[in-house]
Design a protein that fits this description.
Shape: elongated
Oligomer: single chain
Number of strands: 2
Largest sheet: 2 strands, antiparallel
Distance between the termini: 58 Å
Helix content: 55-70%
Structural class: mainly alpha
Length: 192
């Protein structure tokens, strides 16, 4: 293969190997995969030095066929006229629409701390899963992610002694950060 086929041009000056492009965004990708893909594409676009139009066109080219069909149906020729930020937001909306929020909520509500998993890692896992869900108050639409994560962490902790202590003093742990601090102190005391 010649060098032209194996590289992507950077404004006519720098050449980046095409093999360094992230894999194509898939209509069926999960939101954590989407976030990684988005970051990789943003970094690639920056390193490549693409202008806005080239970046937007390239974003579409880095999508699977189903994503391209949705882009075509929603934007047609107008896709090339939006900004890279708007293009990323549009792609995220397409992927969000393809996901199943009810299934993601069920997964969230079943999370349990794994054997050997630190409290901090469990909190992070709960926060990441919460991002996949539409966790908003049904009455006022206010974001309730922190409150839901706090409750899920508390319910999913594997150490019954820690859970009992927290439940007995629940007024001290109204925020997620206060709960995380308690968990970290408990774990440090057990290992130290």
């Amino acid at each position: 293969a010649n060098a032209t086929q194996d590289t992507v041009r950077n404004g006519g000056q720098t050449r980046l190997p095409a093999s360094t492009l992230p894999e194509k965004a898939s209509y069926a990708m999960a939101m954590p995969q989407w976030r990684i893909w988005r970051r990789d594409m943003q970094q690639y676009t920056k390193v490549a030095g693409w202008d806005d139009r080239t970046a937007v066109i390239s974003l579409r080219m880095q999508c699977d066929d189903k994503m391209k069909r949705v882009i075509e149906a929603e934007y047609g020729d107008g896709w090339e006229n939006i900004t890279p930020i708007d293009a990323m937001a549009a792609l995220e909306n397409i992927i969000r629409k393809s996901s199943n929020p009810a299934k993601e909520k069920e997964t969230f509500h079943r999370l349990q701390q794994l054997p050997g998993e630190s409290g901090k890692a469990f909190v992070h896992r709960c926060e990441q899963q919460a991002l996949e869900c539409d966790l908003a108050c049904p009455h006022c639409s206010k974001d309730i992610i922190e409150w839901c994560v706090r409750d899920r962490v508390l319910a999913g902790l594997s150490n019954d002694t820690l859970k009992l202590d927290i439940y007995q003093n629940i007024d001290k742990y109204r925020s997620l950060s206060s709960l995380v601090t308690k968990i970290e102190m408990f774990e440090a005391a057990r290992t130290g």
